Amino acid sequence: MDANSVTAISATVIAVASLVVSITEARASRRHNFQSVRPLLSLDCLRLNSGLAGIRIRNAGLGPAIIRVTMFYFDGEEVGPWEKQVVDPLRGTFAVWPNFSTLRPGKPIPVGQELMLLALEDYDDERDVEFWTAVTQRIRIRVQYESIYGNEQQEAWFEGSPSRKVVSPRQGRGDAGPSIDNDAPTG
């Protein structure tokens, strides 16, 4: 074996090793990119001291959530998708007409966004008992969503809880969003 053959074999081994490293790095980079834009939706009921009460959805993940399917259940019965024409008959049964936000397929929910799905801005304990009972005990919402890569569908459920969650602004930060205080007295 002469020097040219050794050089050619060495060059080939180095090229194959470089190709393997490149493929491994590309896969790791793709996996990292998927994880770096992974959304995480959460749904909960809340009542702010300012009078706002209702059902909230928020994206606490690292990337936008693309809504694929929503389903609204009332008293355990499937009603339909979380859209205006489906939810409006329920809204009409309350003493005050609550605000509503739709979750249509394809709608993105950006990182950090909070959206009130069903809310009263001036909640009153006595007047709106039926609304709070519906939010905490009778309404269920299922949301299927995915990341912008569309690689895996995830699911978030809202099931009200009979215990009230009183939410108050964070102390010391005037521009801060609400924080849940599970130990706060209810009234």
What fraction of residues sit in β-strands? 25-35%
H-E order: HEEEEHEEEHEEEE
Shape: rod-shaped
Mean pLDDT: 83
User: Strands of the largest sheet, in order across it?
Assistant: 5-7-2-1-10-11
How many strands, which pairing sense, and closed or not: the largest β-sheet? 6 strands, mixed
Characterise this structure:
The protein has 187 residues and is of the alpha+beta class. The chain contains three helices and eleven strands; from the N terminus they run αββββαβββαββββ. The protein has helices at residues 3-36, 84-91, 129-138; strands at residues 41-48, 53-59, 65-74, 77-80, 99-100, 108-109, 114-120, 139-146, 153-159, 166-169, 178-181. The strands form two sheets. The protein has a six-stranded mixed β-sheet with strand order 5-7-2-1-10-11, with helices on one face.
